[in-house]
C-alpha cells in the first residue's frame, strides 16, 4: 500500500488544509479554530500511531531545550540576513505578529498545552512517521516539511510558509535522530516562547 491509499493520512492532510483555511479566513476566530484544529490533530495522531518516546526524561529535556535555542538562533540569524535584502521581511514579520500574536491568558495556555503538542504529534508523529513507512525516512522528512508548510499558504504570508518549512525540516531530522515526540514538543515550546513572547523578531 502507498501513502496515497492510506485513508487516515489523506483525511488528515485534507482536514488540515480545510481547518487552516478557516483558521486564517478571519483574524477574530484564529485562536478558536486553530485550537480546534490542533485538538483534531492530537486525536487523529493518538488513534493512528503510538507516541514515540525513546529518550529518558533528562535526555529529551536537554536535547529539547538545546535544539529549541539553536533553532531560534538560526531564525534570528536568517531574519537579520534577509532584512538586509529588498524583500520587506521586517514588514511581513511585523504583520504576522500584529495579527496573530497571543493577547489573552487563554491564548498562552492553549499555545503551550494544545497548539505545540498538536503540531508535533500530527506533523512529525503521524504524517512524517506514516510517510517513513512508505519511503526513505529522509525523503519523508522533506515531504512532511513541505506538507507542514503548505497549510500556511492560507496566511497569505510567504515568510510564514518558508519558516514552517525550515522548522519542519529541523524537527523532522531531530525526530529521525532521537525518535522522541516529547523532545520535539520541548524544542518547539522553547522556540515558540522565544520567538513569540520573550525575544520576538522584527
Protein described:
Keywords: Hydrolase, Membrane, Protease, Transmembrane, Transmembrane helix. The protein has one domain (3-198). The model has no long low-confidence stretch (mean pLDDT 95). Helices cover 78% and strands 0% of the residues. The chain is mainly alpha-helical and 202 residues long. The longest helix has 30 residues, at 105-134.
**Average pLDDT score:** 95
Distance between the termini: 46 Å
| Number of DSSP helical runs | 8
Strand tally? 0
The helix/strand series, from N terminus to C terminus, equals HHHHHHHH
What is the beta-strand fraction?
under 5%
Derived structural class = mainly alpha
How would a textbook summarize the main sheet?
A: none
User: What Rg is obtained from the alpha carbons, in whole angstroms?
Assistant: 16 Å
**Which outline best applies?**
globular
**Low-pLDDT segments:** none
Number of domains: 1
Pfam families: Rce1-like (PF02517)
Keywords: Hydrolase, Membrane, Protease, Transmembrane, Transmembrane helix
GO molecular function: endopeptidase activity
GO biological process, one term: proteolysis
